[in-house]
From TrEMBL:
It comes from Silurus asotus. It comes from the Eukaryota. Keywords: Membrane, Transmembrane, Transmembrane helix. The chain crosses the membrane at residues 6-27, 48-68. This is Transposase domain-containing protein. The lineage of its organism: Eukaryota, Metazoa, Chordata, Craniata, Vertebrata. The keyword Transmembrane applies. The keyword Transmembrane helix applies.
Length: 404
């Protein structure tokens, strides 16, 4: 009908309430059944209570509420006793250039869904990251523990498994209460003391002993821990469930570092591209062969082939060992080509990537891309600087009403 078409149109194009209400006043001349106010048309919620905690404002949407809604959109009939697989994401999102105000959402993706659409589990808004962490994660940990023994949706009993927590390196260190990736004990996968070289923290060890969920819970490596993470009290594996994020580690980390080394003055002279070569590459399809020095190109191909294997659902497990060999070779040759002082956290992290894929599946399953895209959608929901948390709660209620 006209009402649902209008509300769907308004939500899809982000029409402001002022403009929508003005449109309704015109349409009501010919369609008097339409509501006077845009909020009535969109069924904008006012039934929410914000909590003040961790140095800001906080609202908890909940896992079970989101699961119940996602349940309706699954493309298959979910059997009784099914174990839902949930992936979490925690990250910070600056809201305005002129302000330090930021969101810290907890997002989730139901792995059963073919289309990976994130949903909001919790949302914090403040001028800095939530402190103390225990207040920020308290509701999440409590609900995870409450759901351990199962839950009922539409008369069926289900259980929940957190498959992974996707974070960039700073957020991962924050929620795990460990040293940052620039610290001496900054690698969250293996036990080694970094080497500070040329103003960078490097991790040269290839075969260091690995951290485990149990060693983390017992805080065996005291230098690695800054405190006690609230997530330890849940059933989340504090090492195994925190894979390296393909987007941040490889795409924005290693590849960006390589481009810097090739195109700026920080890299060794024999590895750099001239201005003429950069221009030539930019004017055609991105082809590196013939422009990079042979040893630099061959080193890059080790990375490229390994990532192609690990990103492929058919080959990521059957050729996992081969991909790992390629990545270890890449890191070793990288150190010789560019210097050991460039073997920073992201470069070193490549040697742990294949084991993450063995545990969690191909790289797109442990990627931050869907979460990063959704964060930008959250940001676009803001229409003014005032009360950003309230605005998002209302916009999400409108989206839910349209799709219900």
């Amino acid at each position: 009908d006209l009402s649902s078409s209008l509300s769907g149109w308004a939500v899809k194009f982000g029409v402001s309430l002022v403009a929508l209400t003005a449109l309704l006043s015109i349409l009501r001349v010919h369609h008097p059944f339409l509501p006077k106010d845009g909020r009535s048309l969109l069924k904008t919620t006012h039934a929410y209570v914000l909590n003040t905690l961790a140095g800001g404002s906080f609202y908890y949407f909940g896992i079970l509420n989101s699961l119940a809604k996602a349940f309706e959109n699954l493309s298959f009939k979910v059997p009784d006793r099914h174990v839902f697989r949930l992936q979490l994401n925690i990250d910070g999102l600056p809201l305005f250039k002129s302000s330090s105000l930021q969101f810290w959402p907890v997002l989730g993706i139901l792995q059963e869904c073919v289309v990976k659409n994130p949903f909001v589990i919790a949302l914090f808004c403040g001028v800095k990251k939530p402190t103390p962490l225990s207040e920020y994660l308290d509701a999440l940990v409590k609900e995870l523990n409450n759901l351990k023994d199962g839950f009922v949706i539409h008369g069926k009993t289900f259980s929940l498994k957190i498959t992974s927590v996707i974070c960039d390196a700073p957020a991962r260190a924050f929620v795990k209460c460990i040293k940052n990736h620039t610290g001496y004990s900054g690698c969250d996968k293996c036990v080694q003391s970094g080497v500070y070289s040329n103003h960078r923290m490097t991790f040269p060890e290839i075969n260091a002993s690995l951290r485990t969920d149990e060693s983390f819970r017992q805080a065996v490596d005291e230098d690695h821990h800054l405190g006690h993470s609230p997530l330890v009290e849940s059933n989340i594996g504090m090492v195994s469930s925190f894979p390296h994020d393909y987007m941040h580690l490889v795409c924005l980390g290693v590849v960006r570092r390589l481009l810097d080394l090739w195109m700026s003055s920080i890299g060794p002279l024999q590895c750099r591209l001239s201005g003429h070569q950069v221009k030539a590459i930019s004017e055609r399809l991105f082809v590196l062969k013939g422009f990079l020095a042979e040893q630099v190109y061959n080193n890059f191909m080790l990375l490229s082939v390994a990532i192609c294997i690990l990103a492929n659902p058919s080959f990521c497990l059957t050729m996992n060992d081969f991909a790992n060999t390629l990545l270890v070779s890449f890191v070793k040759h990288f150190s010789k080509l560019y210097g050991s002082d460039f073997v920073v956290y992201n470069i070193h992290g490549l040697i742990h990537l294949s084991s993450d894929v063995r545990l969690h599946g191909h790289l797109d399953l442990i990627s931050g891309f869907p979460f990063e895209n959704y964060l930008q959608k959250l940001k676009k929901m803001l229409r003014k600087p005032h009360s950003p948390l309230t605005q998002v709660i209302r916009r999400l209620s409108e989206i839910e009403a349209v799709h219900s």
